[in-house]
Design goal:
It is found in: Cytoplasm. It is a single chain. This protein has 163 residues and is α+β, with helices and mostly antiparallel strands. It has helices spanning 2-14, 70-73, 146-149, 152-162; strands at residues 17-23, 26-31, 35-40, 54-60, 63-69, 86-92, 95-101, 103-109, 115-116, 130-136, 139-144. The strands form two sheets. A six-stranded mixed β-sheet has the order 8-1-2-11-10-9. Strands 3-6-7-5-4 form a five-stranded mixed β-sheet. The longest helix has 13 residues, at 2-14.
């Protein structure tokens, strides 16, 4: 019985660990459990007729991985690719995909008290993909629910591209 208590408390702790990354001037966070690995940016192979936010695909140890540029997806201006640009390799619903971000800073552990709900924006802005806002000292992280952000329609598109 003791082991079960320890395991569940470890799950609770890891459920609140977020990988912090930047897009433009803002800092975001995604659950660390969704992250498979971090890689430097390499130009992917373009796929004809793919939406602009899908940069293309890369071959990751024999697996074809679609790459999504989050600056384009979030409409944050023209992306630049330099030595700080990082591709976060994610495992979402059994699918492997890459997410291009400007940089990755660290892993942050947030207690439930440090996570505030996302503000209601009405119909002007869809906030369904936000877990909330994480605050630690003077930092504020926009916490993204990556499963909801990569909607099922987009995941279906990713499958078609990876095939």
């Amino acid at each position: 019985m003791q082991a079960t208590t320890t395991e569940s408390s470890q799950t609770d702790i890891s459920a609140h660990e977020f990988l912090a990354f930047t897009l433009g001037k803002e800092e975001y966070g995604i659950h660390i459990l969704k992250v498979q690995e971090l890689r430097g940016y390499e130009a992917p192979t373009r796929i004809a007729n793919a939406p602009a936010f899908i940069k293309g695909v890369v071959n990751l140890r024999g697996i074809i991985v679609p790459i999504v540029d989050m600056r384009i997806k979030f409409n944050l201006g023209t992306p630049t690719y330099d030595q700080f640009t990082v591709v976060i390799i994610l495992n979402i619903a059994g699918r492997v995909m890459g997410m291009v971000v400007d940089s990755v800073s660290d892993v942050i552990t947030l207690s439930p008290e440090q996570v505030k709900p996302a503000p209601e924006m009405g119909t002007a802005l869809n906030t369904d993909h936000l877990i909330g806002l994480g605050t630690i000292d003077e930092r504020m992280l926009i916490l993204v629910d990556i499963d909801k952000l990569m909607s099922s329609a987009e995941l279906g598109l990713m499958d078609a591209i990876a095939a």
